[in-house]
Write a structure and sequence with these properties.
Length: 477
């Protein structure tokens, strides 16, 4: 009998997914897909810590709400009995109960129960389960967008596991820290933690963790445009995942190849082939994978295929794919997610190409709300500036244009982004000048000039000096 590469439980040769942890396997894949797929990772993967050696309590097991409710009721009955006879409440039951709420996507109850479990484990001095609770709390806080709280809990989990010298779980914590720093765009810290996970995996000869850590690292390397290193990692991982019959790893590697060729911008057909291969493999799993994992695997495939079809000027197909991507994200994520902002932004840009300006503005505003909620001030400012220019160019609504542009300016000033402030003051000056409001125009040109001076942009600084002097002479200042 074979062993699942994820949870190490025994699996049968004919299983297409592990019945213990629900992760997809490669067993009989060629038959399932009628040999249409030739095997020539998406967002970083989060890591739950094992409650016991072979039990991932927070993995998405195929289970319906009725079964979950029944299990919760059984646990509640046990807890009530223990309370009646005066026995201590075991933290393990609370931890199991919180995991069931998590599966139901009832995050407030999962969080509350998990905090109770943490308190119990602290009283019992059960350090391993204290670390597990901190890790799961970190994952939930990351889901909720409270990234500072997520980092706090991951660090507490690391400190405890470091005392226990549990290297395999420390690797998972490093990856989780890399993930949260990746989400807040701190690439230096994200790269650091992924590298730490990767190096520790190599030192401990944990080949599977090494492959997954390097796959996470690829996401940072995309932003750093280190395509040569990405190719080396993907080639090695593809071979590893095939040899270990790891279907999940194969799907994500096909997806990352698709992203690689998209970002390189040399052969979008090649990108298209890899992305569609990933979708074909996912589709081949059919009912053998639950809807949450399916959606998590699909969303980026749809997203990048939408971007490709937009480049190919097939706007209807592109829009459908973006909407499928949005639907997938909303299905598997808990509440709003920052990925929605990126999809909504692309839908806005697509609708500008279609000439549907009203819908484009609506999508941009929705994207702004998402980025604001998750604290991405720079992106929020960038989109508000775009909305302002749309009102100016397409709607000829100067009042709304100025409103959005000044909102963007306020954000950039808080961030101390001098260059962006200079550009916006310059733009506002031009708008007021066009409207015949010379005093307001000069005031904004003066502010723009000062900002250009701070960044030593002599060309624009001198250009504005001449413009300001000309306006003052015309108006006898």
């Amino acid at each position: 009998m074979k062993i699942c590469p994820y949870c190490k439980s025994p699996i049968e040769d004919y299983w297409s997914y592990c019945r213990n942890c629900n992760k997809p396997l490669i067993a009989n894949l060629e038959n399932a897909l009628e040999k249409n797929v030739r095997f020539n990772y998406n967002e970083p993967e989060i890591y739950h810590l094992d409650l016991e050696e072979n039990d991932n309590a927070y993995d998405d097991i195929i289970i319906n709400d009725e079964e979950i409710d029944q299990k919760i009721n059984e646990i509640d009955s046990t807890l009530e009995n223990k309370e009646v006879i005066g026995e201590p409440i075991p933290g393990s039951l609370l931890l199991e109960k919180s995991s069931l709420y998590y599966k139901k996507r009832d995050i407030p109850k999962a969080l509350k129960t998990l905090e109770l479990a943490l308190d119990n484990f602290k009283e019992e001095n059960d350090l391993l389960n204290v670390a597990i609770c901190h890790n799961e709390l970190g994952i939930i806080q990351e889901d909720n967008g409270f990234f500072d709280q997520a980092i706090y809990h991951f660090n507490r989990a690391f400190e405890t596991l470091n005392k226990l010298k549990d290297k395999s779980k420390i690797i998972k914590i490093f990856n989780n820290l890399g993930n949260v720093y990746f989400l807040i765009k701190d690439l230096e810290q994200s790269y650091h933690y992924y590298q730490e996970a990767y190096k520790l995996s190599q030192q401990e000869n944990l080949i599977f963790e090494e492959a997954k850590s390097s796959s996470n690292l690829v996401e940072v390397l995309f932003l750093l445009k280190d395509y040569d290193q990405i190719k080396r990692i993907l080639e090695r991982n593809l071979s590893f995942f095939k040899d270990n019959e790891d279907l999940y790893g194969l799907i994500t590697t096909e997806l990352k190849y698709g992203k690689l060729y998209y970002f390189m911008g040399e052969d979008y057909n090649e990108s298209y082939q890899y992305l569609t291969k990933a979708l074909e493999i996912i589709e081949g799993l059919k009912e053998n994978i639950n809807v949450y994992i399916k959606a998590k695997l699909e969303w980026e495939c749809f997203f990048y295929l939408g971007k490709i079809y937009r480049l190919w000027d097939n706007l209807t197909k592109a829009e459908n794919l973006f909407l499928q991507s949005l639907e997938a994200v909303r299905l598997y994520e808990i509440g709003d997610n920052i990925k929605e902002g990126e999809i909504l932004e692309n839908l806005a840009e697509l609708n500008i190409s279609k000439g549907d300006i009203g819908r484009a503005i609506d999508y941009y505003n929705l994207a702004c709300e998402i980025f604001y909620k998750f604290g991405d001030k720079m992106k929020n400012a960038e989109l508000k500036y775009k909305i302002g220019k749309i009102f100016l160019e397409y709607e000829e609504d100067t009042f709304k244009a100025i409103k959005y542009i000044e909102e963007a300016l306020n954000i950039y000033e808080d961030l101390e982004y001098t260059k962006e402030c200079a550009i916006i003051y310059h733009k506002l000056g031009d708008i007021y000048l066009f409207k015949g409001m010379t005093d307001m125009a000069i005031s904004n040109f003066e502010s723009a000039k000062d900002h250009y001076q701070n960044i030593q942009d002599e060309y624009n600084m001198n250009l504005l000096k001449e413009k300001i002097n000309s306006l003052k002479n015309q108006n006898n200042y």
